[in-house]
Amino acid sequence: MNIVAGELSDRQFRKVSDIIYRECGIVLKSGKEALVRARLVKRLRALKMGDFSEYMKYLQGEQKRDELGLLVDVMTTNKTSFFREMAHFDFLGETILPKLTAGRLRFWSAACSSGEEPYSLAMFLLDRMRGLGSRDVKILATDISPTILEKARNATYEEGVLQGLPAAFLRKYFVKVGNVNPPTYQVSSDVKKMVRIARLNLLHPWPMKGSFNLIFCRNVMIYFDKRTQQGLINRFWEILEPGGYLFVGHSEGMSGIKHKFRYVQPATYVK
Ligand SMILES: C[S@@+](CC[C@H](N)C(=O)[O-])C[C@H]1O[C@@H](n2cnc3c(N)ncnc32)[C@H](O)[C@@H]1O
What is the pTM of this model? Predict the structure, then answer.
């Protein structure tokens, strides 16, 4: 079907922005109309709908709950990469790992997108952590988007995505998939088994029982307003072990947020 979605009116834009803010905290201000329109068209296409008003009505119908999830799914920005913001991994290797001597360690990648962040962490730990085999070390990887989590679970990446990954890591921690073009690699089972993937909306209650030694919450708070950021930072404080670390994205920082963390270096905080 050829979709001619027409214009997205200001009213429709505001309605969608309000829904997205309420559902997942992402702020879509004026200026984002073209982006929202392009992403909404994906839903119209999937539903074989011809225009935005039809979709807006559909959003209020009985299938509302399911559709809201799918709408949030298309509105998220999932950009990520292996060993993104390498300074965090350098700091982890040089300063944090020597102090992490406990037998049980828990890490959380709190907006893991398609898995590059938690798998980078798992590879890094396998490579650098002494006695890993005899310790209980797990990484929880969560995100709101079911589509992106499916990719994380598949853990299969085309060659282009793996650029920037140390060559030795590619050899050690990936398995080449058949004879496909472009060349494609799957994360090895040793790496995968350290990572537990689950859907979690950061705004909702967190079901995890124990506390964490290190949380990566990078490049997601940038989409939230100060109020949401403040609430999250307080909750990260609560769920971290004393001496636990919080990594945020380098473009995020915590200015304007009240917190009890000690600043360590850019985008790195300790409880
Ligand atoms: C830009 S990616 C960041 C990925 C990774 N942390 C990194 O730095 O490369 C942001 C991710 O946050 C997720 N996200 C957005 N709102 C969320 C929410 N309320 N709860 C959980 N995840 C959310 C999106 O689905 C997306 O995958």
Answer: 0.96
